[in-house]
């Protein structure tokens, strides 16, 4: 296993809705700060070999302020890059980065105690994101890893500039590939934890998405069912991982039909994601002009 904290001012950053960058804030607003923003964190020195099998990966935050805005629904991505560079003041320096196909949604409970760094401040397992990154042919043991968060709501975490000892920390357990282990026998070996028979299974309250027409032009109808009333967040991303549309919905119990108009997207393939506190559904559609 390996754990690394954000290690410099340029390794965590906030990007405002305008694209303006903040690299030296004393905290990280996840996500609302006057407007919804995007947060990036870079981790250097993980020393994971290319092609390793990721067993588990979590991101640990520390509470900076007991300020909570709900619903808080966060989406976590990695940067799809062999060795991401540090953040800069260039406009749009986080959202312009190519994202991983893999993503994880997280609805953290309220953060009530300043300085707390416990289970409530720890993300769900990020294995799928880290696996996609370390499987890149150009990834090496010296590569950095960048994680990107967006969404809605607010939790406030310590940044590097607020407290270098309490900034975001990424912990990864992995099994090194046989060739790497032969070259370096000191690399750790981890066994995959098996889920016990009585461990609860995650049940998603929102059912699979259906979109029509498909291909579409300027408008798209999304239909799905839900087992309860809930706040939901929707977004559309292109094949490069860039967000091109997003809005909040109020999902009703039972059948839902939502019309998206004025999409004004160029021809191509897109991915629609809809998530609530306990659900994430994704579907693919095509724009044909």
Number of domains: 2
Mean pLDDT: 87
SS element count, helices: 2
Instruction: Enumerate the spans where pLDDT stays under 50 for 5 or more consecutive residues.
Output: 185-203
What is the CA–CA distance across the termini?
A: 49 Å
Strand content: over 45%
- Class of secondary structure makeup: mainly beta
- What shape does the CA trace take? globular
Number of beta strands: 18
Largest sheet: 8 strands, antiparallel
In quaternary terms, these chains amount to single chain
SSE topology string: EEEEEEEEEHEEHEEEEEEE
Share in helix: under 10%
Integer-rounded radius of gyration: 19 Å
Task: Describe the structure in your own words.
The protein has 289 residues and is mostly beta strands. It folds into two domains: 2-183; 210-287, Immunoglobulin-like, CATH 2.60.40. The chain is built from two helices and 18 strands. The chain has helices at 127-134, 178-183; strands at residues 2-5, 12-15, 21-22, 27-33, 35-36, 38-43, 53-60, 63-79, 99-106, 145-158, 169-175, 210-212, 220-226, 230-238, 243-251, 254-260, 268-276, 279-287. The strands form four sheets. Strands 2, 3, 4, 5, 6, 8, 9 and 10 form an eight-stranded antiparallel β-sheet that branches. Strands 15-14-17-18 form a four-stranded antiparallel β-sheet, with no helix packed on it. A hairpin with a 7-residue loop joins strand 12 (210-212) and strand 13. The protein is globular and about 50 Å long. It starts with a strand and ends with a strand. The model is unreliable at 185-203 (pLDDT under 50).
């Amino acid at each position: 296993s390996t754990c690394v904290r954000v290690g410099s001012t340029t390794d965590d950053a906030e990007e405002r809705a305008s694209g303006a960058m903040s690299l030296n804030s004393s905290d990280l607003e996840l996500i609302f700060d006057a407007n919804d923003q995007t947060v990036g964190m870079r981790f250097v020195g993980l020393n994971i070999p290319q092609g390793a099998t990721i067993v588990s990966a979590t991101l640990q935050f520390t509470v900076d302020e007991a300020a909570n805005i709900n619903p808080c629904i966060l989406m976590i991505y990695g940067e799809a890059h062999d060795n991401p560079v540090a953040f800069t003041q260039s406009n749009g320096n986080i959202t312009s980065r190519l994202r991983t196909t893999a993503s994880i949604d997280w609805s953290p409970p309220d953060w009530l105690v300043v300085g707390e760094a416990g289970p409530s401040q720890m993300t769900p397992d990020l294995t799928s994101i880290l696996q996609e990154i370390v499987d890149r042919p150009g990834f090496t043991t010296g590569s950095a890893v960048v994680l990107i968060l967006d969404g809605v709501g607010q939790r406030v975490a310590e940044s590097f500039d607020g407290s270098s000892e309490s900034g975001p920390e990424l912990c990864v357990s992995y099994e090194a590939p046989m060739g790497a282990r032969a070259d370096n026998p000191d690399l750790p070996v981890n066994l995959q934890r098996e889920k016990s028979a009585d461990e609860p299974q995650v049940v998603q309250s929102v059912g699979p998405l259906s979109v029509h027409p498909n291909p579409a032009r300027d408008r798209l109808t999304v239909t799905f069912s839900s087992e309860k009333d809930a706040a939901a967040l929707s977004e559309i991303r292109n094949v490069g991982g860039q967000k091109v549309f997003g809005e909040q919905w109020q999902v009703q119990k039972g059948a839902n039909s939502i019309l998206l108009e004025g999409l004004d997207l160029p021809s191509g393939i897109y991915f629609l994601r809809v998530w609530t506190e306990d659900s994430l559904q994704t579907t693919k559609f095509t724009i044909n002009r």
